[in-house]
User: Which sequence fits this backbone?
């Protein structure tokens, strides 16, 4: 079977397509025939050995898959051969078949395509965990999403909207902001053209934002914190700008505010029941049309390196899907 392989940690340009042995399921595993795999910003890091998880070489990129169960290992009783499933597997998604722990797979509801299901775990999962479990977002509160047109950001825009919040999408161009508007954002802020702190204050009539969903880091985290409301929460999601900011603690004190870490990839291992409940809710919302996963582009397996490079170059809105 075919697989996209990282045989060295030299980035997406070094990925090769090769034939590898078919997998067999160990105890507690299923083999999934992958229909679609989804890419995330983490693939730009993992292919260079810069992500918090460092798989052994060679490995395949793509942390999320959707497909059909083809074989079931001993001890698996909740999944059947032929069942459609999706989920987060960390890496090795970009290959024709993969053996994965059955407990990571969630059944796909009827009417949801592989392309849609493949891309929901990381982005919507993080939005549910961040905004609901960690951020305690309440109806009527305001949320500023930094990097709002990216995969994680656009999912947060949609989930915050479903939770009844007022959503301020922050992105770097009018084209990216238009996509955020299409996905439910109430207000738009171009942080390439407008000062973030001033812009957020003006949009909230001087009160500041209740929750910041920060996918970007760099200089923007402190600017957003300086415009946070009394009792606000800064949700630390990621550092797409490439710089982990160091922020003076007095800024939290002055606003009775909190910095809240959100580590979805670890939470799903520590709190599997909560993760599963979140994913079932997300997939049902997709089936009902209440969430509309935005696919920026679909690539064939052979061009996966090009796809990851597009994420690196900041050219992607929503998700990139790899058809296997
Ligand atoms: N904590 C968690 O559990 C968790 C889960 C998922 C993702 N994340 C993290 O969240 C961040 C976003 O992930 P994603 O998959 O949504 O990525 P993505 O689709 O590539 O989106 C990242 C966004 O960040 C902005 N950005 C600002 N500076 C950038 C730069 N130098 N390079 C690339 N993008 C830049 C871009 O928007 P503008 O051009 O509009 O600025 C882009 O839309 C990453 O750091 C990722 O590791 C964390």
Assistant:
């Amino acid at each position: 079977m075919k697989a996209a392989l990282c045989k060295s940690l030299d980035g997406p340009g070094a990925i090769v397509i090769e034939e590898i042995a078919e997998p067999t399921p160990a105890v507690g595993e299923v083999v999934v025939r992958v229909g679609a795999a989804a890419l995330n910003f983490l693939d730009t890091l993992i292919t260079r050995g810069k992500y918090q998880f460092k798989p052994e070489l060679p490995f395949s990129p793509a942390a999320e898959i959707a497909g059909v169960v083809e074989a079931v290992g001993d001890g698996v009783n909740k999944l059947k051969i032929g069942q459609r499933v999706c989920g987060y597997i960390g890496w090795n998604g970009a290959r024709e078949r993969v053996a994965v722990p059955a407990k990571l797979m969630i059944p796909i509801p009827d009417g949801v395509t592989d392309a849609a299901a493949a891309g929901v775990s990381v982005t919507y999962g993080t939005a549910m965990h961040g905004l609901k479990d960690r951020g305690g977002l309440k109806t009527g509160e305001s949320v500023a999403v930094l990097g709002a047109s990216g995969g994680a950001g656009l999912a947060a825009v949609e989930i915050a909207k479903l939770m009844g919040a007022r959503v301020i999408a922050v992105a770097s161009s009018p084209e990216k902001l238009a996509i955020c508007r299409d996905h439910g954002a109430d207000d738009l802020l171009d942080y390439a053209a407008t000062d973030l702190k001033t812009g957020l204050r003006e949009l909230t009539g001087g009160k500041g934002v209740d929750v910041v969903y920060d996918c970007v880091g760099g200089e923007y985290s402190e600017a957003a914190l300086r415009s946070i409301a009394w009792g606000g929460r800064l949700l630390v999601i990621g550092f797409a700008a490439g710089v982990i900011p160091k922020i003076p603690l007095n800024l939290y004190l002055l606003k009775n505010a909190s910095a809240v870490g959100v580590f979805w990839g670890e939470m799903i291992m520590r709190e599997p029941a909560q993760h599963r409940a979140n994913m079932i809710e997300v997939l049902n919302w997709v089936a009902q049309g209440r969430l509309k996963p935005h696919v920026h582009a679909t690539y064939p397996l052979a061009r996966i390196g090009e796809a990851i490079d597009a994420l690196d170059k900041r050219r992607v809105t929503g998700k990139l899907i790899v058809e296997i």
About this structure: The two ends are 11 Å apart (CA to CA). The first strand starts at residue 2 and ends at 5.
